[in-house]
Design goal:
425 residues, alpha/beta, Aspartate Aminotransferase, domain 2
């Protein structure tokens, strides 16, 4: 039995009190909550009061992004006095020009972010609350930090780049981007809103939780989102790391829980499970990464003898060790998902948050478009862009995955492709 599951059974019968209550059971629940918060903070090299619990990764990302924007509106734009203050350092002739150019907060993100980041940013732009720059990744699914640097301007308040992609598994150069952000802060210590902190740097680290370094000081981030949904045997809980000096506004009203940023009674049982699971992951992370890497290499070795055409999506080196994403030209990825599922092999074709949409994977489309652009600009070569609706198939390894499972997967995949090629070639 997983230790996190044991935690659930131990506390499910006994923990019923609200951590906000002042009676004996409430105080006991609050103590358990604060101990868990402290243990989780230790994993990230953070302070306990920098850890905010949410319902999941989507809420954490929304709180980070929308929370920053609403805090800026409340502090600077909704206050006429503040508005006058931050324009006074400019001449009267330039005030109108500056107001038109820099009045709205500016966010920078990439074109392969999770929908909870990308769609939140687009929604804020549609509502006229922000300016938005969406930077394209390279053909290997990695963002160039110099591209991020180029987009920073005087009203930039937030840069959001995911740590590891949920579809193609590429790991982004978070530390390098953080260096660019710190350098910009150094040479331009104040922006149009008068703060020394801007731009802030947020990373969606939900996919990285099992495999990558999560120390926020080493990463150089101001905000970091996580979810327990990527930990096997653990339920659903989310978390946002928010650096103490960073101001964000709550998205909901109704209570003062979670430092006043997330009203509602905390899900104590899930928080306790999350705390125990995080410590176990950190303890066995090096060993697990090695095991996953061996499985990944074994899968890639098997593919070398594959008789069907395929494209591996994303950089082979800078990627999560449990992820391989493959495009089979002319074969719809969703059809492959269904065929493999019928044989007991569970794979995915795109983000589950977009699984009900008929469109293909925007992540796969982005990297194939980047490749087409690179070839046309550098090699005078004609590159036929993959139909976005073809997409890619993500193969992920879990705690129980073995080489025998990979052998079976390759065998079944070959049989399915043999059957489908006469229809789609």
């Amino acid at each position: 039995m997983l230790k996190s599951r044991k935690v659930y059974l131990d506390y499910a019968a006994g923990v019923r009190a609200n951590p906000s209550s002042i009676h004996v059971l409430g105080l006991k629940a609050k103590n358990e909550l604060q101990n868990a918060r402290r243990e989780i903070a230790n994993v990230f090299g953070a302070r306990p009061d920098e850890i905010i619990f949410t319902s999941g990764g989507t809420e954490s990302n929304n709180l980070a992004i929308s929370g920053i924007i609403w805090s800026i509106f409340e502090k600077y734009i909704f206050s006429s006095n503040k508005k006058l203050l931050y324009f006074t350092r400019y001449s009267k002739q330039s005030i109108l020009k500056i107001a038109r150019q820099f009045f709205l907060p500016h966010i920078i993100t990439t074109n392969i972010e999770h929908p909870s980041v990308l769609e939140t940013c687009k929604m804020l732009k549609r509502r006229g609350l922000i300016e938005l720059s969406i930077v394209s990744v390279e053909s290997n699914g990695i963002i160039d930090p110099k591209k991020i640097k180029k987009e920073i301007k005087e009203n930039t308040v937030l840069i959001s780049v995911m740590y590891a992609n949920n579809e193609i598994g590429t790991v982004q150069p978070i530390k390098e981007i953080a260096k660019e952000v710190r350098y910009y802060r150094k040479i331009k210590p104040k922006n149009i809103f008068g703060e020394f902190l801007f731009p802030l740097f947020h990373t969606d680290a939900i996919q990285a939780i099992n495999y990558l370094d999560l120390n926020v000081e080493k990463l150089g981030v101001d905000l970091l989102s996580l979810s327990s949904s990527k930990i096997e045997g653990v339920g659903r809980i989310g978390m946002l790391y928010k650096k103490k000096s960073v101001l964000i506004a709550p998205m909901f009203g109704g209570g003062d829980q979670e430092m006043g940023l997330r009203p509602g009674t905390e899900n104590l049982i899930e928080i306790l499970k999350f705390s125990k699971a995080l410590k176990l992951i950190e303890k066995g992370k090096i060993k697990e990464i090695k095991r996953f890497k061996n499985l990944q290499n074994y899968f890639l070795k098997k593919l070398k003898n594959f008789k069907f055409d395929f494209i591996i999506n994303g950089d082979l080196e800078n990627r999560l060790p449990n992820n391989i994403n493959i495009t089979f030209p002319n074969i719809p990825s969703e059809l492959l998902v269904l065929e493999l599922s019928a044989k007991g092999i569970m794979v995915s074709s795109k983000s589950t948050c977009k699984s009900l949409h008929k469109d293909g994977s925007y992540v796969i489309e982005a990297i194939h478009f980047a490749k087409a652009l690179f070839l046309s600009n550098n090699e005078n070569n004609t590159f036929t862009k993959i139909n976005p609706k073809i997409g890619g198939v993500r193969f992920s390894f879990g705690k129980k995955t073995s080489k025998a499972d990979i052998d079976y997967t390759i065998k079944i995949l070959s049989e399915i492709l043999q059957k489908l090629k006469k229809w789609y070639n």
